[in-house]
Amino acid sequence: MSILELGKKAKEASLALQSLSEDTRIRALHAVADALLKNKEKILTENENDLTVGKSNQLPKPILERLKLTDKNIDALANMCHEVAAQAQVVGLITEKHTRADGLIIEKERIPLGVIGMIFESRPNVVVDGAALAIKSGNAIILKGGKEAQHSNRVLFDVIDAALKNILPAGAVSLIETREDVAELLKLHQYIDLMVPRGGSSLIEYVRKNASMPVVAHDKGLCHTYVHSDADTNSVTAIVLNAKTQRPSACNALETLLIHENYPDTLGVLKALHQAGVEIRGCDKSKALLKEIKLATSEDYNTEYLDQIISVKIVSSLDEAIAHIQKHTSHHTEAILAKDSRAIEMFLNSLDASVMVVNASTRFNDGGELGLGAELGISTSKLHAYGPMGTKEMTTTRFRVLGNGHTRI
Asked: Same domain, yes or no, for 283 and 388?
């Protein structure tokens, strides 16, 4: 099937999907969950093929980490499908309603966007996340994963496709596999309603430059945490370690740590990072505290490491911390650790990021953690969504005007 034909098929499917009952959508999601568990061995075998090829091609450790699927991962994906199925209905809901003096009824109805194209790198689990969220939100979806995960992406798609065969219309979920396919897809504005690129800056730039339809980008996560002078010394180190080391290859992992010069346990935080195997690239003041720290360059403060590396800067004030973040932010996740409510409010009101965090790890910028079940991506755009995109963010609203022979005067 050509990309043009695939786009047409997806558009046809999207119109049929909008009219399906909520029970049908729920049944489809449960079927996908069951199929994932039933085909677990096959999925892991194909994933191992990708890992073997990736290692032979000397892919960086962070990419291999994002590529890897485990028994636990597949269980989690199946559970995610059940959780999304259990979420409140979004398609067809009346979100606003009023009746005019002449009896004309005005309603706002939540409807799917239509057809979503999603291009992503490394993480094969996104095939399942994207399909599940599209099913629940009544959208058709066309998926394109990175070549490093081609075996994993294909087997996951085949499992999903088979599970949906007698439940959803053909073309509800599709997979494309080459860069040439992407180039063709980006031309099909008459069939694709939204393009969602999720990956590195080069991918985002390519899609933005070439797409003929609207784009909501999941760009890099250069996430900051600022430790204020009065931050709770009993929790700061644990939060910083979680944000940096729990999963350093994730887009919501901490990349730059800013510490107020009057915070009393700066050395304790730095030692804990070093002992956890994190390479620290810091300013002169931080290096004076711990000799193992390497001097940071200006480029380090612009770098999303996705690895066991962190940039550190000791600042003299909240204003300096805010100015630093304003200069280097990727608008993904910014966090403050503090007790002073005025400092917290100033931080929140002075910065622009899709998720702002207070006294917690940046790792909470995640669809599952924020109650969305999963996410299509974490939007660093502002239109049509900002932050994790769940089922609600994959819909829009339209007006319904209900009359009884009304004419306009």
From this structure: no
203 with 350, same domain: the answer is no
Instruction: Sheet containing 105-112: give its strands across.
Output: 94-99, 105-112, 395-402
- The string of pLDDT tens digits covering residues 81-109 is 999 999 999 999 999 999 999 999 999 99
Q: Are residues 145 and 48 in the same domain?
A: yes
How far apart are the C-alpha atoms of 113 and 123, rounded to whole Å?
24
CA pair distance 407, 409, nearest whole angstrom: 6
> Please, what sign has the CA dihedral across residues 326, 384, 201, 224?
positive
Number of domains in the chain: 2
Percent of the chain predicted with pLDDT > 90: 88
pLDDT score at 303 = 94
Number of CB atoms found within 10 A of residue 124's CB: 29
What is the model's pTM? Answer: 0.87
Asked if residue 371 is part of any domain, the answer here is no
Claim to verify: residue 321 and residue 392 sit in the same structural domain = no
Q: Tokens standing for 318?
A: 């909240």
Which two tokens mark 300?
């380090």
**Cα–Cα separations (whole angstroms), residue 399 to 17, 194, 409:** 19, 21, 20
Q: Are 198 and 377 in contact (CB under 8 A)?
A: yes
The burial class, CB within 10 Å (0-12 / 13-18 / 19+), for 341 is: exposed
* 293-340 pLDDT, tens digit each: 999 999 999 999 999 999 999 999 999 999 999 999 999 999 999 999
> Which 3 state secondary structure label does DSSP give 71?
helix
Domain that holds residue 248: 223-364
Handedness of CA 93, 97, 103, 104 (dihedral sign): negative
Helix, strand or coil for residue 317? coil
| Residue among 33, 272, 336 nearest 160 (CA) | 33
Rounded to the nearest 5 degrees, what angle is found at the Cα of 229, between the Cα atoms of 223 and 235? Answer: 65
If asked whether residues 75 and 183 sit together in one domain, one would say yes
Nearest residue to 123 via CA among 300, 1, 305, 306: 306
Q: What is the CATH number of the domain that holds 47?
A: 3.40.605.10
Q: What is the C-alpha separation between 218 and 113, in angstroms, rounded? A: 18
